[in-house]
Amino acid sequence: MEAVHGHDHAHDHHHPTGITRWLTTTNHKDIGSMYLWFSFTMFITGGILALGIRAELFQPGLQLWKPEFFNQLTTMHGLMMVFGAIMPAFVGFANWQIPLMIGASDMAFARMNNFSFWLLPPAALLLASSFFVPGGATGAGWTLYAPLSVQQGMGMDLAIFAVHIMGASSIMGSINIIVTILNMRAPGMTLMKMPLFVWTWLITAYLLIAVMPVLAGAVTMLLTDRHFGTNFFNAAGGGDPVLYQHVFWFFGHPEVYIMILPAFGIVSQVIPTFARKPLFGYASMVYATASIAILSFIVWAHHMFVTGMPAAGQLFFMYATMLIAVPTGVKVFNWVATMWKGSMTFETPMLFSVGFLFVFTMGGFTGLVCAVAPIDIQIQDTYYVVAHFHYVLVAGSLFALFSGTYFWLPKWTGHMYDEKLGKLHFWLSMIFFNMTFFVMHFLGLAGMPRRIPDYSQQFADFNMIASIGAFGFGLTQLIFLAVIIKCIKGGPKAPAKPWEGADTLEWTLPSPAPYHTFETPPVVK
Ligand code: CU1
Hints:
The chain is mainly α. 67% of the residues lie in helices and 0% in strands. It has helices spanning 18-24, 28-56, 67-102, 110-118, 120-129, 148-151, 154-183, 196-227, 241-258, 261-275, 282-295, 311-323, 325-339, 348-371, 373-379, 383-413, 419-445, 460-489. The longest helix has 36 residues, at 67-102. The radius of gyration is 23 Å and the shape is globular. The two termini are 28 Å apart. Bound molecules: copper (I) ion.
């Protein structure tokens, strides 16, 4: 190894090896990798639960599972994907990329970083183990609405405890990200010179700190209602179950943006690279991201149009929600303008980012449909809503995560991934994703309710298509796993700068990035 890049980690006897290394590591790359593997494990687990759901719904009249177990599947699928798969995956990206992109030697609080990660596996075990306690896991839906969540068995307590632990992990992770970005940038890197991915994470971290305690409050009130005789959500005791929904969604709507803003950040790195043009409208991207974050706090009751809200409330939350389409539209315009007259190539990261643009934007539009109160009252609790948020979370968050993984995999592993397999992964994902979720719009508009284990004959055809699509989508992800393992184990050596158009700081490092990030911090002009 060249002296400037420090010593080869494998021969460094000052660092522990084996399991001790992973348990005690304070290195942001180790921790980033652990986050990414953890989230992939949860993605597979939550995905298997989803296949359990789709198997039950393959045909009307099937009864593979008891209805209570079906509810447990939908609930745990949601909790695991939101808190176990998507959020930790973005934190993994933050750990790997933020120090490299701003020229910092590591995360600001390296030991707290280790603690943030190691809180997650026990939380996931608590969640998963709730399937095996008397009464099974909670079947109250990932939103844990009262009064059902007040009445359920001890699986609910395990879920509450798990949510608390994961929340603590998120808050510590966010503090780390904010302090790293504000205090540890290389000389010359002003805030308005930061890569967009860093910007979106800075804003996301503030969102997390603002709303995770609100979720903690909601589930704590739930806990005291369940065990300590309070009546926050009990109408007979002077409380109100609708209060739970207000508190939950004051967390829950910003949470939606927590899961999509870092995705915007990834796409904003990938599209300029493969269009070989600078990002169009950098400053407007920053302001749009901040506007979306601020607006996300004043729209929560659009999830509650059927709770008997006054018309004035419905109008306020409807118009406030529609306002978010403005900064989001600015972003989509900027991405398209970046590609305009660019010299584009379509390697796998770009395919997933352009795919994101197509399908995520559709999820945005159906979000607008849901935001219109009189329409929402018709489609509340139907499969239309399920279609909408899977377009946002799968075609949005997940496709961006795929895009970013292929984009930075050469930097992370030092090897080029298998482009043919990557492209196959993209096209099969795109086809099976739409096969699974596009038809759900029709099911919802025709009135099929969500969270039911059976349905009437008229919904049979679309459900069968969705179920076949879901199994295809699940199997396709094995290709992704194969690409990653292959890339870690070998393959053509990645140059320091595998992508011609890439111009952010991390590409100035050799591939893989050295174990210690910077011997001398680079100077950004
Ligand atoms: Cu919302």
